[in-house]
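Our platform keeps sequence and structure together, in a single record for each protein. Such a record has a labelled line for the sequence and another for the backbone structure tokens. This encoding replaces a full spatial description with a residue-level series of whole-number codes. Below, we set out a record of this kind in full and without editing:
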Amino acid sequence: MVKTEVTVFFDSTLEHMHQLYCGFALLEKQGEIRLRYVTDRRNIPAHLLRVEIAGKRVVFDMADGSTLTKPYVDEADYYVKRMLLRADLERSEKLIPFGLAYPVFAHNLFLATVFRKDRKLLPFSMRYWPVIPALMGVMDNVDTGHHTRFRHSAGQNRKVIFSSKLWQPENVNDTGKRLQRIEINQERIDLVRELRRALGDDFVGGIRRDELSQMLSPDVLIDRRQSHKAYYRKVLAGCGVGVANAGLEDSIGFKFAEYVANGSALLTNDISKYALPGGFEEGVHYLTYRNVSDCVDKVGELLANDRARIAMGKANERYYDDVLEPATNMKRVIGCVLGAPHFER
């Protein structure tokens, strides 16, 4: 078998990039690609990663927002975008939807030792070390976020989960972004309060404790132990329904993808404007809610209908296996770049 040549021009330590690094590492281990890393500290935007695939210039854009970043989108042969609008996909053949994102890891010797080339990369490299990150309180790392820890079959369970954090509005200068953070925060607080009131012991979750949340929502806080990723994923494995709400810049957040991998039924804000690969469909993989009250009602419907809830969880299990699993997703992207006919954008 001829291996596809892949060169990663390493320049981003953004949390969103671990999924890419994981997919490439797994494909290399499976013998699908010949992988090479080049340390390339060019100071390009942190949400971008340049990769060469079989001689083609490919840019991965993992930003929360839907804007295509110039001039990089123009210079690339292919541009792989996380939050890709359907309207943009229809206008350009060079655009490829990346799909759902979440912080997932595979062991990677290059990333674990890249700090030797630049000491500023030590906090990033530590995430790829065994044991030590957990002892130091680094929540997302190659242990807690290892790719083998996500896949579950949770749809038969009746527990409902929504755990989130609040965004500090004062951290941004733009008035529109500040107001968006206020709206996101209020919806998250209201979701926790109303789901807890309606479901009682069938609800799991709350708002992460920090200075802002202690001021705005002291009645729905979860402690640091409950916020830790290892604890969260253990609890998530027993939850048959996951509730998601919009992230910054109206993005689809990490927890959304984690619910899919978990095999949970899923409720979310409207995501219909985004291009997601592999036929991710409303009514099959998720339900859309209009507001907090509507979310609570639809959660109740899922809990009252075991067959529908379990079927949705099973559909999400299949979607994870066929599309979202890191190596499978990256293989799809490579197939699109190579023009393989059985790989669709």
